[in-house]
Here is the input.
Amino acid sequence: MAVHDGFQPVKSAGRTLAVLEALAAAPDRQSLGNLARLLGIPKSSLHGILRTMTQRGWVEADPTGTRFGLGVRALQVGAAYLTADNTVSLLDAVLDGLAGQFGETVHLGRLDGPHVVYLAKRESVHPLRLYSAIGRQLPAHATALGKALLAEHPDDTVERVLAWPLHRMTRQTIDDPATLRTALAEIRERGYAVDREENTEGIVCVAMAMPLRRPATDAISLSIPTARVDATIEARIVEALRSAAGQIRSAGALITS
Here is the structure.
């Protein structure tokens, strides 16, 4: 367990949080054995943690009592985070406007270490669309949102933040350090990021960092199936994102805390 500035993390608290993070990342309920192997926690200790968390509503067990998932308390805390976050309310109108203009999936994402997390979204009006969920965590290097925000930082910071080797989501995902550095330099130059099927096959995303903090921690993207995207649509999206960023700068809506 890492020690920073002389601080020794509390082992039991760390294990409890590790359980929450593992359940949040899992698509299905997890067995005691799977969680123990994943987290490196003895089954006897993990069983006690899960029972305590179940009693408090943070974890729910299936009818057999052998498989576990997040409980309603986790939803309540997540909702409270979004309610208290100024960014989501400040950008609500921007998200609505982009969704109305293009009819495509719009995401607000935040950089969280080597990942980007969806804070808000607007659904596409089309049956063929990207399916996603608020709170979903994705590798930053494999998304337009993440690359737009990574480009806010110098390369040495990016290299410290990302988890190496880089995970490949699709055949198009950038996993070479030199290629990623080049891509981030291009994003800094032009002011926006694109992922062409780097995160999800058949989906192109265009994203731009929003100037609410320095460096920016939040970005907005539009995600479009390849069947509906062309150079003209992409240029219109970039212009709309630039307009949104410009409105935020003009309003002086910098968040300082």
User: Anything to note?
Assistant: Strands lie at 30-31, 59-61, 67-70, 105-112, 115-122, 137-139, 193-196, 203-209, 218-225.
